[in-house]
Amino acid sequence: MAISDKMTDSKSKPMIVIIGAGIIGLTTALRLQAQLPSSSTDILLVAKEWPTSIPGAPPSHSVDYASMWAGAHVRPIPASTPQLTREAAWLKTTCTEFARQVEKEPSIGVTSTKGVEFLDNPPKDYAAQTKESFEKETGLVGYRRCNTGELPEGAKLGYEYSTYCINAPVYCANLLRKFIARGGRTMQRDLRTEWEAFILRDNVKVVINASGMGFGDTKCFPTRGQTVVTDLVEATRTVTRQNQDGSWSFIIPRFFAGGTIMGGTKEPGSWHAEPNPTQRAKLLKGGNALTKYATDEAVRAPQDVNVIADVVGRRPTRDGGVRIQVEEKQLTGRDGELRTGHVVHAYGAGGRGFEISWGVADEVSQLACQVFRDLIGTKSKL
Ligand SMILES: Cc1cc2nc3c(=O)[nH]c(=O)nc-3n(C[C@H](O)[C@H](O)[C@H](O)COP(=O)(O)OP(=O)(O)OC[C@H]3O[C@@H](n4cnc5c(N)ncnc54)[C@H](O)[C@@H]3O)c2cc1C
User: Fold this and answer.
1) Which atom of ligand 1 is nearest to the CA of 355?
2) What is the Cα–Cα distance from 43 to 365, expressed in whole angstroms?
3) What atom in ligand 1 is closest to the CA of residue 314?
4) In which band, very low, low, confident or very high, does the pLDDT at 345 lie, cut at 50, 70 and 90?
5) What's the pLDDT tens digit per position in 163-175?
6) Ligand 1 centre from 66 Cα, in Å?
7) What residues does each domain of the chain span?
8) CATH number assigned to the domain with residue range 66-168+220-318, chosen from the 4 options 3.40.50.620, 3.30.9.10, 3.40.50.1260, 2.40.50.1020
9) In this structure, which residue's CA is closest to atom 16 in ligand 1?
10) Sorted alphabetically, which PROSITE patterns does this protein's record hold (predicted)?
């Protein structure tokens, strides 16, 4: 993928800069393109790291580029707090877009499949879910409670529903291609602060900060995730178990030749970047115990399931959830003149970036368009 750093005919066009080529920056960029005509606006995506998806090639991304390490599946969480309610609405919007993509863009990297969940110690909000409440909250259909005989030993609650799996690197690379094909501009840069983006071009009006963790926000922290990519290609369903001890076991098929993920840890505040062999053994044990729920085919013995790669990624988590907010600051121009810079923040998606992406992108792009239109003075110009 060529990363262009050129300005051609667009010097005079007002520009929006998006920092970040993760799932939040990419979906926001595409939503902005749909709202602002390229004849009168330039959109520039700036990032330190970019999506790549070359089957069989070793990944070369840092642990901080979360979007390359995600499973990824849609696994709804009951909307039992204000933050979860906000996220549930975003998830519902995202599922509508995934349904459209599965139908209209079948090679983009999203696959419709069945999700199966088991809980050893179900919290009240999971136990209280019904087919009606689940489907209303998520937009996902096919909710069905498992009979006791269908549960693995030790599990107290189980259910299934129609959901989506995303091959994260393939999907992100395809979103980036779409952005470029629609006239989007790209630049590789490691920025010191979101405010630095205003000096990248002469006519930057608004900057969107979709940098994952933000720049020094003390509410942000990593949630380390270790998983294992295996060759369990016969898995066609995503299965999740919330274990008695609070740990998680899951299987996520990465359709489009991406193997199958067995995971995974959720370690708030852990910066450890290397795979831990003890954790790996536990993940494989938990994953292999679930394989019979992930496929209708004969189940392979654990020793016959091969590891393709160990994965460690840092989920960009933020107390209070995603920050979507406009911030203004006085900036000094090249000739010393003062101007006000406007940044729209869009970071802190934690462990849910893919499943809430299009809902977040809608909200961020609408906010950014509003600020942008106010700044350039007139809606009729667009
Ligand atoms: C193991 C694991 C499993 C996961 N499973 C799921 C799942 O099943 N479902 C789900 O929905 N989510 C899942 N997630 C979470 C998901 O990956 C994240 O929520 C999502 O990727 C966050 O996207 P983002 O765009 O905010 O950040 P990122 O993907 O981290 O992207 C940040 C972007 O900003 C750029 N950037 C950062 N700093 C700078 C700088 N200084 N200058 C320039 N550019 C910069 C980066 O280079 C990158 O392009 C999982 C995560 C992990 C680690």
Assistant:
1) 11
2) 12
3) 53
4) very high
5) 999 999 999 999 9
6) 3
7) 15-56+169-219+319-376, 66-168+220-318
8) 3.30.9.10
9) 353
10) DAO (PS00677)
CA of 152 to the centre of ligand 1 (A): 33
Q: Say what the alpha-carbon torsion angle 366, 368, 372, 375 is, to the nearest 10 degrees.
A: 110
Q: Ligand 1, closest atom to CA 357?
A: 11
Which residue in 101, 98, 254, 106 sits closest to 163, CA to CA? 98
Are 15-56+169-219+319-376 and 66-168+220-318 in the same CATH fold?
no
Q: Using one digit for the tens of pLDDT, what is the confidence trace for 196-215? A: 999 999 899 999 999 999 99
How far apart are the CA of 68 and the centre of ligand 1, in A? 7
Ligand 1 site, residue 70, Cβ cutoff 6 A: yes
Kindly indicate whether the domain formed by 15-56+169-219+319-376 is annotated with CATH number 3.40.50.720. Answer: yes
Asked if pLDDT for residue 90 goes beyond 90, the answer is yes
Q: Is the peptide bond before 72 cis (omega within 30 degrees of 0)?
A: yes
Return d(Cα 12, Cα 252) in angstroms, integer. Answer: 47
Tokens coding 223? 């949630």
